[in-house]
Amino acid sequence: MLYVFCGENMPKLLKHLAYSYKKRNGEQVPHYKYVIVVPDQARKQANWDDGEELEFEVSGETLILRPKRDSPNRGHAKRGK
Questions:
Q1: What are the backbone angles phi and psi of residue 56, rounded to the nearest 5°?
Q2: Is the pTM of this model over 0.70?
Q3: CA-to-CA distance for 56 and 62, rounded, in angstroms?
Q4: Distance of CA 81 to CAs 26, 47, 76, Å?
Q5: Do the Cβ atoms of 9 and 39 come closer than 8 Å?
Q6: Domain locations along the chain
């Protein structure tokens, strides 16, 4: 489980345009994805690697991220990057 820190290296939620399309009436409809930026210090502490699959749990306004136990990348990525 990853506990997030406050301070200068604080995690951030970023909004990115994933794609957009035009409706028949000509209205442009955007679709967004959201990216959580995890500080390197927190990633190292949680022993996470690039491409690692995560699962989540939402409790009120709290989002809990943890490694997916049956992830094919769990424990197979190169450590010490």
A1: -135, 160
A2: no
A3: 10
A4: 47, 11, 13
A5: yes
A6: 1-81
Residue 11: phi and psi, rounded to 5, are: -60, 155
| Neighbour tally for 48: CB within 10 Å | 19
d(CA 69, CA 5): 24
List, in order, residues 6 or more apart from 16 with CB less than 8 Å away. Answer: 32, 33, 34, 35
Tell me how far apart the alpha carbons of residues 20 and 34 are, in angstroms, rounded to a whole number.
Answer: 15
Q: Give the β-pairing of 12-22 and 54-59.
A: unpaired
28 close to 20: Cβ distance less than 8 angstroms:
yes
Tokens of 29: 């409809």
Q: How far from each other are the two terminal CA atoms of the chain, in whole angstroms?
A: 21
Low-confidence residues of the chain: pLDDT under 50: 1-5, 77-81
- Residue in the structure block whose two tokens are 């022993």: 47
